[in-house]
Specification:
Layout lengths: L5 H19 L16 H8 L1 H4 L38 H10 L14 H14 L1 E3 L6 E3 H5 L15 H13 L3 H4 L37 H10 L15 H13 L15 E3 L1 E2 L20 E7 L7 E10 L3 E9 L16 E7 L16 E7 H8 L4 H4 L12 H8 L1 H4 L13 E6 L6 E2 L8 E7 L2 E9 L16 E8 L11 E2 L3 E4 L6
Parallel strand pairs: 3-16, 4-6
Antiparallel strand pairs: 1-2, 5-6, 5-15, 6-7, 7-13, 8-9, 8-14, 9-10, 10-11, 12-13, 14-15, 14-16
Helix pairs in contact: 1-5, 2-5, 4-5, 7-10, 9-10
Length: 524
């Protein structure tokens, strides 16, 4: 049914908005204090959420094609992470907490960098988007209004974790047939793990308990709630009717015991703030192991894969230093294999990047936007290889046999590497730096700065399964596209890595949310 009467449509919108506003005012949900104007939830949603969840909240934003698991369709009223009973809508506090925590193991980042009142405004906007057209009446119906507030489950007292509770949990794990999906050892490789789908028809990767990464948080209480409420829209059921309080806690204890000893959980920077230390001397771009880094504070930053692989989380160790004339960042992350080339269509390099917001408020995390651009520094393993020798076809195919003519690489490159033959700067043979300085203002706009503005240097080392890369740039520059470290406020900063062995490239990568970098250096 089409609503052609403007007055009727306007009245309907106002009625739905009023009901959603009323539903937002629930007990236990902190209302903003003071009389200041509330943040614009629609504007915040358009900047930070619409690219993934879509303008209408239907999960069909332009970035959705690159993401797995897929972004939530708010219009369906299915929310996985809740404190309410299975099938019910989440509380405002649930949505508020999810925005602050993100959904680890998915592409949903944490929005803890937003102020509390901004997150509250986003909660109200998400709830307003949970609206669909009633098939019988043709009118818009808000699902939070129609279904009413959910019933918050009671979290019973947790018994002490002992060998007995873990043993009981192991027994319950078998009785509830958890191993059918999650596997006997919890690796998500059970006989029924293949072919699992959510209510939207998308394939689901069964959670690997050994990783210690769970979409609703990794505390005992978080897991207790998942076992109690289930995950709406997925095959994961609720066990509230199948197990007692103590039994659910025992299952929590057993599942937590499955975590791998080497599974990392990041200790997040307090208030999301990274502070650059003072460097006594020039910071070397070619020496990631310089003694200058010994006094710098190390921050742990979780990186989540946009397209889910076997490792849902990578913990990067990040440091920052500021000298008299330069500023530098150092990143370290675990990567069991190193991939140095991208010469052929089936080879992919390791890479890492730092992203800076050029505006006061953090822009859209995925390459910024037209009104809020970003500056990126990207280190590339194959570029670093090019610093020492120019890779050619003979390096890509070292065991190939030539039984007719012998051509030098310069001739073969024209046939097998047309970018290099055409003079494409991305394909050049010899490089000054392993780091590229770029700018972006939205999807499809990533652009290298001109050759004369490429002022970021850096190198990386791979040792015993760990990459360590250093980025160094002059503290003061005249390039309009460069981040200004002399600004009075903190600089929005985010991090990303690509694993060649995981076939990562372009948008398929692991990335962090926004943090704040405080340099406050004196430019000279």
């Amino acid at each position: 049914m089409s609503l052609r009467n403007p007055r009727l449509l306007f009245g309907l919108v106002l009625s739905v908005a009023a009901l959603v506003w009323a539903a937002t005012r629930r007990a236990g949900y902190a209302e903003p204090a003071g009389t200041e104007a509330a943040p614009d939830g629609k504007a915040l949603y358009a900047r930070h959420c619409a690219n993934c969840h879509g303008e209408k909240g239907d999960g069909r934003g332009p970035a959705a094609v690159y993401l797995y698991p897929k972004p939530r369709d708010f219009t369906g009223g299915q929310f996985k992470v809740r404190s309410t009973q299975t099938g019910q809508m989440p509380t405002d506090q649930d949505l508020f907490d999810t925005l602050g925590r993100g959904m680890p193991g998915t592409a949903m980042p944490a929005f803890a960098f937003l102020q509390d009142d901004e997150r509250r405004a986003l909660v109200a906007e998400v709830k307003a988007l949970a609206t669909r057209t009633d098939a019988a009446t043709g009118q818009a119906v808000n699902l939070f209004v129609k279904r009413g507030p959910g019933h918050v489950v009671e979290v019973g007292p947790e018994p002490a974790k002992t060998p007995a509770t873990v043993t009981l949990g192991r027994t319950l794990y078998a009785q509830m047939e958890c191993a059918k999906c999650h596997g006997a050892t919890g690796r998500g490789d059970g006989p029924s793990s293949a072919g699992q789908k959510d209510v939207w028809g998308y394939p689901i990767r069964v959670r690997d308990f050994t990783s210690g990464v769970y979409i609703g948080g990794n505390t005992d209480r978080d897991l207790y709630l998942r076992f109690t409420t289930g995950l709406n829209g997925t095959p994961m059921p609720s066990y509230v009717d199948d197990m007692s309080n103590d039994e659910r806690w025992a299952l929590v204890h057993f599942v937590q015991s499955l975590r791998r000893p080497d599974a990392e959980t990041a200790r997040l920077p307090k208030d999301g703030l990274l502070v650059a230390g003072r460097a006594n001397g020039a910071i070397p771009a070619g020496d990631p192991s310089s003694a200058l880094w010994g006094a710098a504070t190390t921050y742990e930053v979780p990186l989540f894969r946009l397209f889910q692989g076997r490792d849902p989380e990578i913990v990067a160790r990040v440091q920052a230093l500021a000298g008299e004339r330069e500023v530098a960042l150092r990143m370290s992350w675990k990567d069991p294999s190193y991939e140095l080339t991208a010469l052929t269509s089936d080879s992919f390099r390791d890479s890492a990047a730092v992203e800076f917001g050029l505006t006061k408020n953090p822009p859209y995390l995925g390459m910024g936007s037209k009104d809020a651009p970003v500056n990126l520094w990207q280190w590339k393993a194959d570029w670093q290889s090019d610093l020492s020798f120019a890779q050619g076809v003979s390096e890509a195919y070292p065991d190939a046999v030539v039984d007719t003519y012998h051509f030098p690489d310069a001739v073969l490159d024209q046939q097998f590497q047309p970018g290099r033959a055409a003079g494409n700067p991305v394909s050049q043979r010899f490089r000054r730096s392993a780091v590229e300085d770029l700018n972006a203002a939205g999807f499809g706009t990533l652009t290298p700065q001109p050759p004369g503005a490429q002022n970021v240097d850096g190198r990386a080392t791979w040792d015993d399964g760990w990459w360590t890369v250093v980025f160094v740039r002059p503290l003061a520059t005249q390039d309009a596209g460069d981040v200004d470290f002399g600004r009075d406020d903190d600089v929005p900063v985010a991090f990303a890595v690509w694993g060649g062995a995981q076939r990562d490239r372009n948008g398929q990568k692991a990335f962090s949310t926004w943090y704040r970098l405080r340099v406050r250096g004196e430019t000279k």
